[in-house]
Structures are given as C-alpha cells and as structure tokens.
Amino acid sequence: MHLRSLLSDLHPEVVARYYGCGTPLPPALDGATVLDLGCGRGRDCYMLSRLVGESGRVIGIDMTEEQLAIAKEHCDWHAERYGYASSNVEFKQGYMEDLAAAGVADNSVDLVVSNCVINLSPDKRQVLSEILRVLKPGGEIYFSDVY
C-alpha cells in the first residue's frame, strides 16, 4: 500500500495543522504493535492503523491534551472507514522521556515511530533509553527529525 494513498482516507480535522517533517512509516506492518511518539492529532497513527491491519495495534503518545482530544475524537470514524469492528488505535497523554508513566511496558512494541518531536526533548538520551526499553527484541525505530 502506498503511503500517499493512505492520506486521502484520513479525517480532514486530523490532517489540518499537521506539524511533521516527513512520514517515517514502513509500508508493511501487518499485525504489529506500533508506538508513535509525539502523535499530535493522530495523522501518522491512523495511517499506521491501516498498515498494521485490524489485528495490529497503534499507541499514540503526546503531551498535549488539546491535540489528543482531536485525535481521540476520530477513532471510531477511522475504524468504520477501514472496515474494522473496533478501533485499533489508543491515545495516551504522556512524555516520551517517561513512557512507563503512560503505561507502555518493557518489550511490548514492535516498532517506534516519531515525526519531528525528539528534537523538542531536553533529554534525548532518556528518550532513546525509553525507546530501547519498550521495543521487543528485534524491534525497529523509524523517525525523521531536525537537529
């Protein structure tokens, strides 16, 4: 599935005011559990929802409640659009420096993605440490950023 085609299936409010600097998403993730750091309104999460399929899971973490409120508002809309019985996307308020506080367990994620937010952290070493903690053995990191 081409990533560009996924954009046309997103709710307009989700793509409005998009602040990312790319789309660091691999094209084949069927059944995977993916964590999106700094998910904002959920644009990449909903694209990932299609890529992981109904049996996969997407967790979006963001520190901004206002952004998360918009993201959460459209879970059912996207699940219905994709033909899923229920949403496979979960949004949590939290900080990428402390994913445990947001309920992300050790070795629980197949892939971590991040789109232009790691640069905003004052403690990038801690962010990378948390990423390594939550990734399953053999897990991967995809991110785009500006330094």
Give a verbal description of the structure.
With 147 residues, the chain is of the alpha/beta class. It has a single domain (29-144), classed as Vaccinia Virus protein VP39 (Rossmann fold, 3-Layer(aba) Sandwich), CATH 3.40.50.150. Helix content is 32%, strand content 22%. The chain is built from six helices and five strands. The protein has helices at 3-7, 12-15, 43-52, 65-73, 75-82, 124-134, and strands at residues 33-37, 57-62, 89-93, 109-115, 135-144. It has a five-stranded parallel beta sheet with strand order 3-2-1-4-5. The protein is globular. The termini are far apart. The mean pLDDT is 90.
Kindly summarize this structure in a few lines.
The protein is α/β, with parallel strands linked by helices and 147 residues long. The chain is built from six helices and five strands, in the order ααβαβααββαβ. Strands 3-2-1-4-5 form a five-stranded parallel beta sheet.
